[in-house]
Specification:
about 180 residues; mainly beta; Jelly Rolls; 4-stranded antiparallel beta sheet; 2 helices
Length: about 180
């Protein structure tokens, strides 16, 4: 595949008639805050029950997260922290005006802010983006610099199927049974 940052995949592996909000455990696994916005990474509850509503398209089993973004504005360009390398996002609630944006550094000396994985948008060039609607499913390389431009107060809510290093975007894409 090579150099892809994201790809929209068919969403027919998951039952859209299910209220997936019932699987939000409200247990916060991770939280990222700025003065304007919060991003919550929550555990799913009843994972066995959750999987009953999905066809198994996964040759490599992902972990699951329930993710909520609050408030409008730019979620700073960043690389996901830790070992996270690939994310398959199934959007439960989103404003279709919101964009996920991928960037490249203006020059090789650009570094993230101290003690973070976030970058100044002024040091980057936008190279690609997409807008997700409810029930869309996108596979993302979260080891590439990306951010989110939220345009409304509506929460952006998604279920994230995630894989860690050393697995790459190409490996996960090729492993999916689509």
């Amino acid at each position: 595949m090579g150099l892809k940052m994201f790809v929209k995949i068919p969403n027919d592996f998951i039952d859209h008639s299910v209220d997936f909000f019932q699987f939000n455990s409200m247990e916060i696994r991770d939280k990222f805050e700025s003065e304007h916005r919060k991003v919550y990474v929550l555990n799913l509850k009843n994972e066995q029950e959750f999987w009953k509503h999905c066809k198994n398209i996964f040759r490599i089993q992902p972990s699951l997260s329930f993710i909520v973004f609050t408030s409008p504005g730019l979620v700073s360009p960043h690389i996901d922290v830790g070992d996270a390398s690939v994310s398959l996002n199934y959007y439960l609630q989103t404003d279709s005006r919101d964009s996920t944006i991928y960037y490249e550094k203006k020059h090789e000396n650009v570094k993230p802010f101290p003690n973070t994985s976030s970058y100044s948008v002024n040091d980057l060039n936008e190279i690609s983006s997409f807008r997700a609607s409810k029930f869309d499913t996108f596979l993302l390389d979260v080891k590439k610099i990306h951010g989110i431009q939220k345009n409304s107060d509506q929460k952006r809510v998604l279920i994230s199927f995630r894989w860690n290093l050393p697995l790459t975007f190409d490996q996960i894409y090729e492993s999916l049974i689509l």
